[in-house]
Records
---
Amino acid sequence: MPSERRSALALVPTNPHPGTPLETERDTTLLALVLSCGRRADDPAAIALVERFGDLGTILNAEAGELQRTGVAPQVVQQLEQLRTLFTRAIREEACRRPVISSWSQLLAYVRTALAHQPREQFRALYLDRRNCLIREEWVADGSVDHAPVYPREVVRRALELNASSMILVHNHPSGDPSPSTADIEMTRKVIDAARVFNIVVHDHVIVGREGTASFKSMGLI
């Protein structure tokens, strides 16, 4: 077997319990397999991370400083950041292969992966062309645990720069509850009104939380 092939296989996690699907393994075991490339299923870094954060989604979205405070090595932090980027990018690419509006379930899967476990509010805008295909995803604002400042004119200005025909607004609620607040509704209305002047459509505003997602359109708010 060529050496390149052996090296690639060495990076594939080995199931510690032959005959048992990896999908049924505990979070700690799966994380240990990834962090130690299959050599150990009781990796202390994996145990420390699960004890501190509770689940894989929260671990993958934790900030570097929070991860380091568990005592894990810098290379483990780097591995987790790479995994997060890999998973998010894979789901995003799947969501964007077709017009966003016709692949809504994939879009929701992407925004949940990207935002559901974030510790602070993030506001993003998905700018679409005339075929409702994604032109650009823009990170509009990064805020505190319960607020991200958004300026409607800037959201619309960027749409004009990208020659976008429509957009979808997305942000997360770190509290876990995706229910829109009064401030969310007011801000969305301002973006819609500003966009309408330039014939730009706001298809939806999706709020993401650990407990699920909330669609302004489905709720009759758009």
---
Amino acid sequence: MASNRDTHHGLSPVDDRMLSRESWKIFQIMAEFVEGFERLAEISPSVSIFGSSRIKPEHPYYQLAEEIAHELSNAGFSVVSGGGPGIMEAANKGAYEGKSPSVGLNIQLPFEQVGNGYQDIELSFRHFFSRKVMFVKYASAYVVLPGGFGTLDELVEILTLVQTKKSRKIPIILVVSSFWDKLIDWFRTTMVAEGTIDEKDLELITILDDPKKIVNTIFEHYESRDFELSAEEQKIMLEL
């Protein structure tokens, strides 16, 4: 009985075409990494800022993000955001009006994501995972404002990488304590209590509301060391 499958590859013609498309996809992914590495290698020190794309300019969170980014930019930090609207736009806007570069790592989505106009350096990604590497690889700190699933995804990603020592330890600062307090309480009363994380893992997180304190906390972290990576950290980040 004749088979409807390709006897040479062991695949149907449809499967074969799909495999070919996926193979070519590898080059697209490589191109995203190469462009990201080349364009972001000189932005150090930098701070990655996260938050909801749905926050409007008149919202206090937007204004707070803009102020934080402006303070960071004037203090010498490049500011990196997701490049879209909401908190991302506020971060880019604050940095754009400051002294240091405003960087947007844009993602192509079926909805929501539209690049904002406050980017000195603008990159576009098709793949979340390559974009996430860029957020981590060059960040001297993470500043996380109120947001949705995407913001939580970035927060948990950096916590996991630092906890497992797959990334160097950097300040991870949550902004707007009233938004985050119950989540941190849940970490403590449920995750720590059940033994799924250690109490010391909570020390990775700092909660602050004042823009100047955020900048000072980042500087305090690097008080006894340089912003540049040590030889050991270079090895860690190379294997990120």
---
Amino acid sequence: MARYDKDYYRILGVHLESTEDEIRRAYRKLALQWHPDRNPGNPDAEERFKEISEAYAILIDRTKRVEYDLIRRGTGPGNFRVDRDQVFRDLFTDPRASAIFEDLARELSRMGVRVDRQDFQTTLFGGRTVVTGHVVVISPWTPFIALARLVGAALRGGRPPAAPSVPSTPGQGILTGLGRTARWFFGLATPVEQALAVDDVVLPLRVSTNEAQKGVRKQVRLPDGGEVVVLVPPGVRSGTRLRLRGKGRRRDDGSRGDAYLAVEIG
């Protein structure tokens, strides 16, 4: 009979019939208590914070909670496993569940601890930056997709949407004088994005043919020494770029440009 011995209800101090609001309140209370920045002399605080965050991520997700409840009763499938990194990644990509981190940041700030959403990610992922919703896939087929959009807009009598956010490419200067519609058609950056290009970095990301077909998680070291973990989508093509917003060179005002991972298959 399948079992999963970790008791997430006990970890959060809630009961089996607890509502989502009750789960949020329980997690909020424990997270404020065990946040590592509030326990600088306690080496166990970080792991405790991760443990209660894992419990919250499982119980606040309806699908995960149902699967977990079934396995605890011995009536679920025997392949229930928890990949903590994946669980946290799902947590941060769910606006309904991750909104609590803004609330925690405000409350911790009132306690004299200055943190933001990025700090929570850094803590939960062990000092690594794990990119979730900030990855934009820029395909070699972008101009052809843009053509289809332009034709569709023309047939509907509408106007093309704003230019997509894409990096500058070699030879782009030839088209600097083109109008907004033509620049959108070719999938090129807007003038504002061109001005930021000096702060962007492009890094090679080599994946095997098998990884490109099935998708893969890759850890990448950035020029400033930081690390990111990115999910390369299945079916990715050579030449595709993954845009990591805010991971480029630091600007004078403290903000950062973007980093682009250029996929190389082979």
